[in-house]
Amino acid sequence: GVNLAFDANQVRLALLWQGAFMDGGRHWSGRGQGFQPPAGFAKLTFPELSPFAFLDNADSPWPEPSNGRASGYRFKGYERDKLRRPAFIYEFHDVKVRDFPTGSAELSPYLTREFTVEGSLDARKLYYLAAAGKKIEPKDETYLVDGKYSVSFPDLKNLKPVLRESAGRKELLLPLEVEGKLSFVQRYDWHYE
């Protein structure tokens, strides 16, 4: 019951929703032009920002995409597991990333993304943009974004998220220390009022 749309041009999670995937009827006849929106409900639209960046420090501005593409990225395709779920593979400069989203449910549906980051950063400081919005509120071990969904990081170990304001929005950054290989999980939960 959890669906997602991944934008390979900007190498980012673009949409997340519950229920039906989409009605492809308008693309089955004629020329099939136009955008087909999700058919489900509880749609979350994420900002058009790339997921990783090298920053001088946690106060440096997050890079904006140029010409609709993420700078420094190379999308390498995807792999599927035995259940045919995709893991998105891409490179950011010389850092390799594997992003494996998995839908699940407890009392309500949620999505986890398991990231595996490989490479050597040398003296560069790599950050992951975990969330961006008008409002991000920390609560216990989660961060509520715009009152619509929350993000959390199960088993984060030594990494500590940084909540900041930049470019007129709130941003939740995760500073990453990678020498060889690093894995972390991010969880998305819908927030119902």
What distinguishing features does this structure have?
single chain; 4-stranded antiparallel β-sheet; mainly beta
Which SSEs are present, and which pair or pack?
Elements: E1 2-7, E2 12-18, E3 41-45, E4 52-54, E5 73-80, E6 86-92, E7 95-105, E8 109-120, E9 126-133, E10 136-139, E11 142-145, E12 149-152, E13 162-166, E14 169-176, E15 179-190
Antiparallel strand pairs: 1-2, 2-3, 4-9, 5-6, 6-7, 7-8, 8-15, 9-14, 10-11, 11-12, 12-15, 13-14
Structure description:
The protein has 193 residues and is mainly beta. Helices cover 0% and strands 54% of the residues. An 8-stranded antiparallel sheet has the order 5-6-7-8-15-12-11-10, with no helix packed on it. The protein has strands at residues 2-7, 12-18, 41-45, 52-54, 73-80, 86-92, 95-105, 109-120, 126-133, 136-139, 142-145, 149-152, 162-166, 169-176, 179-190. Strand 13 and strand 14 form a beta hairpin. The mean pLDDT is 89.
